[in-house]
Specification:
Layout (H helix, E strand, L loop, with lengths): L2 H7 L4 H7 L3 H13 L2 H10 L3 H18 L2 H14 L6 H26 L1
Amino acid sequence: MTIEECYEGLGGDYKRVCRRLPGRQFVERFLWRYLEDDSAQLLFAALAARDPAESYRCALALKGVAGNLGFEDLERAVSELAETIRGGEITPQALEQAGTVRCCHQAAVKILRLYFEA
């Protein structure tokens, strides 16, 4: 799998990421770090605890990570979730959106593992 194919699977644009991050090795270093990042797990834990303030903070953190790495599908999903919980309540809609975020995150982890195993 090439890095371009990896980004296609992530719903992102590798060339756009390269305009932000200086070079393939730099991008790969941060992709590897995403596998060790706990932003998604912290978000899911805060949602499970029904803590809207912490959930919002964690959603913004994950949105930033996804945006910087060019994970456009994940960034879009977590952005929608953040907007829903911005009002300070964990609604059924927020929990449904969290499911989409979880799917996008799990897909990203799976693709990244495949990329680094190659």
